[in-house]
Amino acid sequence: MNYIWAGMVCIGIFFSLINNTLPAFTDGLLDSCTRAVEFVIGLSGIMAVWCGIMKIAEKSGLIDAAARLVMPFIRYLFPKEHNAETIAIMLMSFMANIFGAGNSATVFSLKAMERLDAENHYSDTASDTMCMFLALNMSMIQLVPITVIKIRSQLGSSDPSSIIIPSILVGFLSMAASILVCKFFERRQSKP
Amino acid sequence: MSQFLSTLSYFFIPGILTLVIVYGLYKRVSIYDCFVDGAKDGLRSAVDIMPFIIAIFVGIEALVSSGAMKFFEGLLSPLFNFFHIPKELISLILLRPVSGSGSLVLMERIMADNGADSFAGTCAAIMVGTCETIFYVLALYFGVTAVKKMRHSFAAGLVGYIVSVLASVYICKFI
Lengths: 192, 175
Hints:
Chain A is mainly α and 192 residues long. Chain A contains 9 helices and no strands.
């Protein structure tokens, strides 16, 4: 992470020097800080709501019930994960992704990552479960890309929602690819 | 089918809310107290992630506003030619992994320039609809945790991304 971030900033400065775009670079940087804070403030509202709702579901036992329901599926993808509550939060994050709930998905994923990190024995190295969770998160299918469809109809598409089925197809392919990569590395590293 | 799926998405959030609240009432949980309690946690997490989000926004902005992104576009264009990916899509493909809102704007521009139902326009729509901002996700989620070695998650995300880009283009050729 150290290197990635340093790389991004240094490459940026280097290119703005040779492209002579330093003023734009500086403006962009200051502007992006403001946008980041605005983004978090927007996010914190939704975060509070969903965490509140999750608490209710947790207390009422709904989360345990949901986790039990998807156990077989989870067993294959996350063989090392046993905490029902963590599984339920991961599940919520996937659901929010699938249904295109945008920032809500981010909220659940962050919560899940926090929990996975707490269960991780080597705190500076990602566990298999964390890797798989992230891989799924990054490639999860979305049933209805609502924003995209809205923009399509604004720009006069004859059938804005025609992209739904191809999108799901593409999503499945990329999800399968990500899962395979994860499983491949897990197997290779578990051998002595 | 498309219609059914849109309706399902539409009802997702209200549906979950109703389910949780009704189930909570049925189990006699003090719903309001729980909600407030959880919301407090949520706000605390929001403050916790703030520095990481600022760092990521700054990093991405550095790449985009300096013109570094444009340079990489030029560098990679032979590769995209080889896979018969239309050149209108190159900047979108490069921007998508780092910036969600940026790629939305770019998608809008591609559609406006080429037509919403054109090949490039449809491809762009599918790409934005299916791909994730993988660098952003990695940086944010691993930033929040103390993890420094992210192992194969980067490879998995990248392979998934490449597959979805190629699949978007080739599936588009059939519709």
